[in-house]
């Protein structure tokens, strides 16, 4: 592979943006062309909720301009790939030749099959919007909003709209928001955070019909919904690849070189399915961009999937998910719950490695665990300190009972009482029992008494 | 001493009645008191806590609490099989079933509890048992046959002990527990899950969240089966009730003594009834309205009253330790302190190892420094240490404490960080 190929990229989201930047950095010298369907330069999609809450404008999200020599065509949609001739056709009527084609078409919102969300011609009804693009964020209607779907996006959207002072109801079919990632405890915590931020929650409910200004739920409740935000999941944008005859399952299937079934065509980011997974995280997109840039620049390398963390950060809420919700290899599970302070940690370990974790309100633990998880490093032995975010070693490390500790509870005999009896000459259980009554109740303390005797005798030869 | 001793009458020769007299005699240098102990059971006090070991081969003599010195003490008079039937507070006398009247200067009620038998049809059929005394165990042993179907009503500490006893007698019992989990008072769901797995492994069949609706007779007139409220029908030739206890306060009403809201002779934190001559200790005492079903608080009450009778200084009864460990071979389950994290701002730290089948929960103060309680299941090695540390600052990180051998045991190896 040479570094002078013409690389044509379809799609101009975060994956494409990172790819072209890294291509140059890794020494690719050939021409690069990027076709982006959206009418604006690449922007940071992850920060869209900041547009919703009014802290940023869509323009603020714009990503740095691509390196010199990269041609970007915004507002141009690729409509067909002619693999035999290595041509891509677009809705602008142009055709683009390629040596290497990269599909970075991302994902598109899934529209639920719900009466009234679409007009007769298939477009979204007035008042209904998805939240994937900057246009979407600017389009959201005024008035009371219903957010449909309480996954990460729905949760983040709800919090953002509340910050903007909007009246928000979150409707979610699961028992609590993000139920596929969070256990009941964490889910309840998240739900209470949303409520205290001002959201109305309708969990365990499905929407059945949208009428202008209203959303009807399956139990008959009618919610005011001047705006309806659909956060009902995304699906990889694969139409172009499919039409081109490339292998597609959930996403466009790629191998460890991020190659589709055509060796000249690659795919990455939210549209790509690698090792059976379509993570839909920007972290994955970035890692793949880095690998693919090296590959296209002629380096002999392949992509190794990393282990990105999912973070949801909003004022008053810090949530991190590592790994799958129920990691298969996990043998040990550690949880820390602190309902009074709204903190929760669930850590799954495979041996001493992190197999998965969910953390709420524990930013230091989240940061530390994300590092350990990403690099597959062992977790230190003081897990309690790790989760609490305290410095390890804050507690002394000797298991030594204080003298006042009660050892025989039936008869209320302390360690000090035993030592006193020992000094008075008691050397065995019978002697101790006669002197203190220890061991004469349930007998459960016999081993402890023996141990205290042994250590007294061992550490102190003369009575 | 020339003065004639005053008479202390103790009603009940159980664990606390015995402890009271023993403590009194140990500290009564001048022979101020003579104790008359009136016992309902036909034998002197025994270690009821260790009762189940009777079915594992220990003899009644092994378990007795009354040694020779006690039985031959001239200032102790023990009358067995002499249940008290009435108290005449004005005359300061008690009457026993045979009509004997005994005068007292001080009267201590130490009548313990009786097993609670829920009012289900068929509960009086032959084949129904309780599990509290030697006589109960003798009757059970008499009736048990290898392979007979059995049901234990109650999945608490004692119910599981009873179920294990049935198992030792060759019966493979069902355990029926009304609460959604076994040992509901002591354990949380995580601990109970491990416990259920362990006792199922021993052959017990566990039914939680349901109760006995009816006990049916077989053709021979003895117990033949049990129907549960969820509709389940179980074969049963033996039924053991272990669904909690009720304080034995039947002497209170006729004598005009007050009882607590949930039964028991009502006493203050010095174990005094409203009658200055009458006290109550052990499971029959409702201290400020609360009863205790463990021996340690009973012992504390007994010693307190004995000290008072001798005018020795003593602190009032304070909230006792209610830690508990299941006494079943191979089933390591325990709870201590604030096991359900009910104290203000409590933190919960849980370690679960599915490979090893263990569960451990520590409840800590808001700063994570002071141990408040916990639950251990599958491996309770750390129980003794943790119980002794309850209410105190942790002496080591929780992860280390949970893997420590026991109080005063060999110190764990230094951590890598310390060595470096
Ligand atoms: C509001 C929001 C918040 C998010 N927060 C996070 C987060 O906190 N963490 C996280 O990891 N992920 C988050 N994500 C997901 C993250 O944005 C995606 O993983 C990331 O954008 C994927 O990048 P991509 O380039 O593969 O796809 P996309 O960003 O979807 O970009 C694909 C682009 O290709 C264009 N395109 C599609 N087809 C064609 C065509 N035929 N011709 C030309 N152009 C085409 C599309 O219009 C689009 O602009 C969030 C997503 C949203 C919507
Ligand atoms: C199988 C089993 C296992 C147990 N395990 C534990 C354990 O592990 N840890 C623990 O702390 N506790 C345990 N307990 C509970 C413990 O045994 C009791 O808390 C303790 O025995 C209470 O002592 P007591 O003196 O109050 O009552 P008891 O020991 O019940 O004694 C009361 C006595 O008074 C007699 N009596 C009643 N009425 C009269 C009357 N009118 N006249 C004369 N005599 C009367 C009764 O017959 C009885 O002998 C267990 C109990 C059982 C049955």
Structure report:
The complex is a heterodimer of chains A (463) and B (420). Chain A has 463 residues and is α/β, with parallel strands linked by helices. Chain A has twelve helices and 27 strands. The mean pLDDT of chain A is 90. Chain B has three domains: 6-114 and 246-309, FAD/NAD(P)-binding domain; 128-243, 3-Layer(bba) Sandwich (FAD/NAD(P)-binding domain), CATH 3.50.50; 332-403, 2-Layer Sandwich (Enolase-like, domain 1), CATH 3.30.390. Chain B starts with 5 loop residues before the first strand and ends with a helix. In chain B, a hairpin with a 4-residue loop joins strand 14 and strand 15. Chain B has 420 residues and is an alpha/beta fold. The model of chain B is unreliable at 408-420 (pLDDT under 50). The longest helix of chain B is centred in the C-terminal third of the chain and has 15 residues, at 295-309. At the A-B interface, strand 23, helix 9 and helix 12 of A face helix 8, strand 23, helix 9, helix 10 and helix 11 of B. Strand 23 (332-338) of chain A pairs antiparallel with strand 23 (347-353) of chain B, so a sheet runs across the interface. The structure holds flavin-adenine dinucleotide (2 copies). Residues 10-16, 35-38, 45-46, 48-49, 77-78, 104-107, 131-132, 153, 237, 240, 269-270, 280-283, 285 of chain A line the site of one flavin-adenine dinucleotide.
Strand order of the largest sheet of chain B: 3-2-1-7-19
The ligands bound in this entry are: flavin-adenine dinucleotide
- Amount of beta strand of chain B: 25-35%
Average the pLDDT over all residues of chain A and give the rounded result.
Answer: 90
Number of helices of chain B: 11
Q: Which architecture of the largest domain in chain B does the CATH hierarchy give at level 2?
A: 3-Layer(bba) Sandwich
Q: How many helical elements of chain A? A: 12
Assign a percent range to the helix content of chain B. 10-25%
CATH class of the largest domain in chain A, anyone?
Answer: Alpha Beta
Rg of chain A (C-alpha, Å): 30 Å
Largest interface: A-B, 48 and 53 residues
Q: End-to-end span of chain A in angstroms? A: 85 Å
Strand count, sense and closure of the main sheet of chain B? 5 strands, parallel
Overall SS class of chain B: alpha/beta
CATH homologous superfamily title of the largest domain in chain A: FAD/NAD(P)-binding domain
Oligomer: heterodimer
Number of distinct beta strands of chain A: 27
What do the pLDDT scores of chain B average to? 92
Strand order of the largest sheet of chain A: 3-2-1-7-19
Domain FAD/NAD(P)-binding (chain A): 6-289
Protein name (chain A): FAD-dependent oxidoreductase
Keywords (chain A): FAD, Flavoprotein
Domain BFD-like [2Fe-2S]-binding (chain A): 407-454
